[in-house]
């Protein structure tokens, strides 16, 4: 893994509302789904991660998601209080993944922009 990959990993973690789903009030662990979504490049996976992490789960759902990028793979962990809510959260998330991947396909692969330095 290159230094750039490690930087992408660190900057693309996204955790939302975790306090409600680490352990339920009845002591049961939350329902958990782990997804690995491949993209054509690390850059595309990073664009997808940045696009998807801005949409937090609604508070009423009790769900949370954690997004990370490993090479060209978008890794997603979704936690919910029960399997019904987990199914809804994963289904909604996959709809957004589909939209993001279609957008990336439509506009072509993202280009690395040169950093502008102030003089």
TrEMBL record:
It is found in: Cytoplasm; Nucleus. Residues 1-21 have a biased composition (Acidic residues). It comes from the Eukaryota. GO terms for biological process: tRNA processing; tRNA threonylcarbamoyladenosine metabolic process. Its main location: cytoplasm. Component of the EKC/KEOPS complex that is required for the formation of a threonylcarbamoyl group on adenosine at position 37 (t(6)A37) in tRNAs that read codons beginning with adenine. The complex is probably involved in the transfer of the threonylcarbamoyl moiety of threonylcarbamoyl-AMP (TC-AMP) to the N6 group of A37. LAGE3 functions as a dimerization module for the complex. This is L antigen family member 3. It comes from Halocaridina rubra. The gene is LAGE3.
């Amino acid at each position: 893994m290159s230094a750039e990959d490690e930087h992408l990993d660190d900057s693309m973690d996204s955790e939302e509302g975790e306090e409600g789903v680490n352990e339920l009030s009845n002591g049961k662990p939350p329902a958990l789904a782990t997804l690995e979504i491949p993209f054509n490049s690390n850059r595309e996976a990073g664009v997808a991660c940045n696009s998807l992490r801005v949409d937090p789960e609604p508070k009423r759902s009790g769900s949370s998601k954690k997004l990370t990028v490993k090479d060209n793979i978008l890794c997603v962990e979704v936690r919910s209080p029960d399997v019904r809510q987990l199914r809804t959260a994963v289904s909604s998330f996959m709809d957004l993944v589909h939209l993001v991947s279609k957008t990336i396909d439509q506009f072509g692969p993202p280009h690395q922009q040169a950093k502008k330095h102030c003089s």
